[in-house]
Design a protein that fits this description.
- There is one protein chain.
- The chain is α/β, with parallel strands linked by helices.
- Helix content is 40%, strand content 15%.
- The chain is built from seven helices and six strands.
- β4, α4 and β5 form a beta-alpha-beta unit.
- The longest helix is centred in the last third of the chain and has 24 residues.
- The radius of gyration is 20 Å and the shape is globular.
- The relative contact order is 0.15.
Length: 231
């Protein structure tokens, strides 16, 4: 009797672990919507606005948030129930784990704080490496979400876009110089944009969209849910 009870407990534990793995670990089938961005960009607030329709206080974390849900705007959309949403930390110390999450991504939302122009260069440098990863591994659609447009310090959409492109071009030039010296084989093998031409998002060889929004306003996130629905 005791043996049967032990077997039952072990069986329940295995089933529970399987369910938790399905719910909270990245799927290998490419069913993840991956949210990226620098610390303070507002990506976590944006994700929980989609999840619970509330503005949630957040703190800087070095661990990803993984949620399985269907935003109200995507109810009834084909395959929407299969997606899980991953908020990857902006902290530099965990960036080594990013490749694992990119490999399971169905789409990527890269969030930029448009009200903090002093952070544009850091955001662009990180975005450059995301573009390289997507070009060299798989073509996954990318949405660059220019967040916090509700703030008076927010920079105009076109100016933010131009600044990001300019900083990405600088990073591309630097990476090209390093590769020429033979120190970076990945940079040597991958070209983001068109060689010999200043970088623009329009020249990226896969789907890239830009939008301006406020993560504090649910109606503003229609640009995000429309993007996800199109993937």
């Amino acid at each position: 009797m005791e043996n049967l009870l032990l077997v039952g407990i072990l069986l329940c534990a295995v089933v529970a672990l399987f369910v938790l793995k399905k719910m909270f670990l990245p799927s290998a089938s490419g069913g993840s919507i991956l949210f990226l961005g620098e610390v303070g960009s507002g990506k976590t607030v944006m994700l929980f606005q989609l999840y619970q329709n509330v503005v949630r206080d957040t703190v800087t974390s070095q661990k990803e948030n993984i949620l399985k849900f269907v935003p109200d705007e995507l109810v009834g959309v084909k395959r929407a129930a299969e997606y899980q949403y991953i908020d990857f930390p902006g902290h530099g110390s965990v960036r080594y784990k990013l490749e694992k999450f990119l490999s399971s991504a169905k789409a990527v939302v890269f969030v930029v704080d448009s009200a903090a122009p002093e952070k544009f260069q850091a955001a662009a440098e990180r975005l450059y490496h995301v573009l390289v990863a997507l070009v060299s591994r798989k073509h996954v659609p990318l949405l660059v979400a220019l967040n916090k447009v509700d703030k008076t310090s927010a920079v105009d959409h076109d100016k933010t876009k131009n600044k990001l492109e300019s900083y990405i071009e600088q990073t591309r030039h630097l990476q090209s110089s390093v590769a020429t010296l033979g120190d970076d084989q990945d940079a040597k093998a991958v070209e983001v944009g068109v060689a010999g031409k200043p970088f623009t998002f329009e020249d990226v060889p896969f789907k890239v969209q830009l939008c301006s929004l406020s993560g504090l306003e649910r109606k503003s996130l229609v640009a995000v849910t429309d993007f996800i629905a199109s993937c």
